[in-house]
Specification:
This protein has about 400 residues and is an alpha/beta fold. It is built from 11 helices and 25 strands. A hairpin with a 2-residue loop joins strand 24 and strand 25. Bound molecules: flavin-adenine dinucleotide.
């Protein structure tokens, strides 16, 4: 079977690439080829409303089924691509199916990083990446009491908040000396640690899992490196993802932790683009960014390029996380900051953290503070230079600083 544009992956990037191609007048055939058996759905609710039962699967679909058929976008679900023949412009799936392409958009995201310690394959140990992961977890939770969450990143903390709401006894185990250490400054980490503890979550820092303990093939506890054993019916492992890029790397694409792409999301292979969690835009941030916005905007840029409007990807990153009644919104990338300013009082549960590098505002984390998020974006986009004292003064609107 041949597609003028073949998209690998039916997540946020893949779905948006197909949608945007049609919106921009692409007339050729489009196929979305995915390992996932479900039609494109939103991933963020998996650790939030969907896990809590507040949203059914229908409500997290990116588009209703008719959307894809009415736009002649073929959903080719349940096929894992295992090989790419770049010269022949062909992909081979694990089940033997082959597809040829005019353009290939690789939006295969990542798979959860797994643990390799003893007991890692016991029943009761879960990841939270796909709808079926969460369905399995929810089924298992019905008879569970103690849950250990391994990893204090956003997904682990969101899962901890949701499970606490469900009445479970939750412990978060984090190897670093604070949660969110990879992505946020210390004041934000400490704020979230306090919030989780106030909601009954136990947070254990600077330790890791030595082994998962079980009986008759099922998890019964988690032995930590500091010698403590936590009783547990369920463990959720949220220690990051490994980008799904092997078939393209084997085909000769350059990259390592993700596929290297230029500002148009082109890989080093002809007519092969990569977007979303698996792509690393060298010229922009040199990072792989894992967010819906990034996947969406890169996919949109590629679609425009394929429709004749060469479009570089240059969007300002943003991200959100919901835990309890706290809505965190971030704008910009804080990596490389050399100073932070706390704006407002964390005790009010509405405040912001401004990240600066060499005197310029590069990012904000805003907790229950939509106004700072909206107005702070202008400061980030202009790389505004504002004195820390002024930024810390919560009575001065960020908008006025951006316009000054
Ligand atoms: C639980 C959870 C909560 C999140 N919460 C937030 C949030 O609050 N805010 C936010 O901005 N971001 C959030 N994210 C991150 C966000 O969902 C991702 O950044 C986004 O989904 C990336 O889109 P993508 O298209 O690159 O990859 P994905 O959405 O992961 O899609 C990848 C697709 O590729 C398929 N695939 C993989 N390998 C192959 C292969 N070899 N052959 C065929 N198909 C393949 C997969 O089955 C999948 O369909 C969350 C992620 C998770 C898991």
């Amino acid at each position: 079977m041949h597609y003028d544009c073949l998209i690998v992956g039916s997540g946020h990037g893949g779905a948006q690439a197909a949608t945007s191609l049609r919106q921009n007048g692409f007339q050729g055939s489009i196929g979305i080829l995915s390992e996932d058996r479900d039609p494109p759905y939103e991933r963020p609710p998996l650790s939030k409303d969907y896990l809590l039962g507040g949203k059914t699967f229908d409500r997290i679909l990116i588009r209703p089924a008719e959307f894809w058929t009415s736009r002649s976008i073929d959903l080719l679900l349940g096929h894992e691509v295992v090989k790419v023949h770049a010269k022949e412009k062909q992909v081979l799936c694990a089940d033997g199916a082959t597809y040829s392409y005019g353009y290939l958009i690789w939006s295969a995201g990542g798979r959860p990083r797994r643990m390799s310690c003893p007991g890692h394959d016991l029943q009761g140990i879960h990841a939270v990446r796909t709808r079926s992961d969460v369905d399995r977890l929810v089924k298992d939770l019905a008879s569970a009491e103690g849950v250990v969450v391994v990893g204090g990143g956003y997904i682990g903390l969101e899962a901890a908040a949701a499970l606490t709401k469900l009445g479970k006894t939750v412990t978060v185990v984090e190897a670093m000396n604070r949660v969110l250490a990879r992505v946020a400054a210390e004041p934000l980490s400490r704020f979230y640690e306090r919030e989780h503890r106030d909601h009954g979550v136990e947070i254990r820092l600077e330790t890791g899992v030595d082994k998962f303990v079980g009986s008759e093939g099922r998890l019964t506890g988690v032995l930590l490196k500091d010698g403590v054993t936590l009783p547990a019916d369920i463990a959720i492992v949220g220690i990051g993802i490994v980008p799904c890029v092997e078939p393209l790397i084997e085909a000769g694409a350059s990259g390592e932790n993700g596929l290297d792409v230029d500002e148009h999301c082109r890989t080093s292979l002809p007519d092969v683009f990569a977007v979303g969690d698996c792509a690393r835009v060298k010229s922009a941030h040199g990072l792989r960014i894992e967010s819906v916005q990034n996947a969406h905007d890169q996919a949109t840029a590629v679609a425009k390029t394929l429709c004749g409007e060469l479009t570089p990807y240059s969007a300002t990153p943003w991200f959100w996380s919901n835990q309890y009644d706290l809505r965190l919104q971030t704008v910009g990338l804080s990596a490389g900051f050399d100073r932070t300013v706390v704006r407002g009082d964390p005790n009010t549960r509405s405040f912001s953290i401004v990240y600066l590098r060499e005197g310029a505002v590069i990012a904000l984390d805003c907790i229950n503070s939509v106004r700072d998020y909206v107005e702070g974006r202008m400061l980030v986009e202009r790389r505004a230079r504002v004195s820390p004292d002024v930024l810390a003064n919560n009575s001065i609107r960020l908008k006025s600083l951006a316009l000054a």
